[in-house]
Amino acid sequence: MSALVVALVLAAAPPSLEERAKAVFKPLSKTFDSKQNPITPEKVALGKQLFFDTRFSKDQKISCNSCHDVSRGGADVNAFSIGHKGQKGGRNAPTVFNAGVHFAQFWDGRAAALEEQAKGPVLNPVEMAMGGAEAVGTVLRSIPGYAALFQKAFPGDKEPITFENFARAIGAYERTLSTPSRFDAWLEGDAKALTDQEKAGLSLFLDTGCTTCHQGEGVGGSMFQKFGLVLPVPLLKDAGRYDVTKQEADRFFFKVPSLRNVEKTAPYFHDASAATLTEAIKVMGKHQLGKELGDAEVQSIIAFLKSLTGQASKEAITPPAPLPAGPKTPKPEKAPKP
């Protein structure tokens, strides 16, 4: 057989599973750096301290970690997070793990980057309810240990303690919360990293059309998509991105979530309407792809999705010792008497 014939035969051969996957996905980065906010060890140390500190909520009971628990998949086990005075948010808290790979933040994409997102919950009256950037600054300056941490993290700033730097530090810490998985090892050439069952699930994931939305480094997190693309979702009230843009074309559009660590982040969807991964996959098949997936197909896809489970470094998720309060630390707001 001539070299030309061999080349033609090889060219006509269908692509392998590895080739198909690499055309759609890419291995997860170890960190998610930003030109606007470069990661430094000092920023990360400060951001981690702030992330776990409950004193940046009005009643001093809620931290970033309260709703994005890094010991529980970076998300909230509750359908809707409980905020100031027991109020509940209107959307399910997404995982903070690998959030740095997303093209926008929040379900409706109203924040362009993690640093902008970090400002939202602190000031939101339903969540941490601090009231304003000035209140955050007052608390920061009242805790003696923060002055040195801010100086180290932002040495070029005349006044390091600012709300902007507060958010930049938290963003830098969150950019280190990468969770590489066995799937990444497989993409990088370790043929034994996935089982035959997981490879079969990946093949079905590709064939079913799931990668229309769940693609790239995050296996999602790279676009907005309509919830109910093929078949409308009954009783859907949240208008999604429409609330941000006021463009009718954006009604019921949400950021496509990353599927990394998805087995650890139930319940699912912006409204927490799917309690299990099985239920979520069937809803996606029906309403996004117009397909009724059988139980065997769903379990096969789940097998693949479990290969996306990874773990952030132990150092990153171990809570730091809280900084001692100063003599002028603002007192927490007391809950009203019943």
Detail the topology: elements first, then pairings.
Elements: H1 3-12, H2 17-24, H3 41-52, H4 64-67, H5 114-117, H6 119-123, H7 133-142, H8 145-153, H9 163-174, H10 182-187, H11 196-208, E1 224-226, H12 242-245, E2 253-255, H13 277-289, H14 295-306, H15 314-317
Antiparallel strand pairs: 1-2
Helix pairs in contact: 3-8, 3-9, 11-14, 13-14
Kindly summarize this structure in a few lines.
The protein is mostly helical. Helix content is about 35%, strand content about 0%.
Structure commentary:
It is a single chain. The protein has 338 residues and is mostly helical. Helices cover 37% and strands 2% of the residues. It contains 15 helices and 2 strands. It has helices at residues 3-12, 17-24, 41-52, 64-67, 114-117, 119-123, 133-142, 145-153, 163-174, 182-187, 196-208, 242-245, 277-289, 295-306, 314-317; strands at 224-226, 253-255. Strands 1-2 form a two-stranded antiparallel ribbon. Helix 11 crosses helix 14 (295-306) and helix 13 (277-289) packs across helix 14 (295-306). The chain is globular and about 80 Å long. It starts with a helix and ends in a 21-residue tail after the last helix. The model has no long low-confidence stretch (mean pLDDT 95).
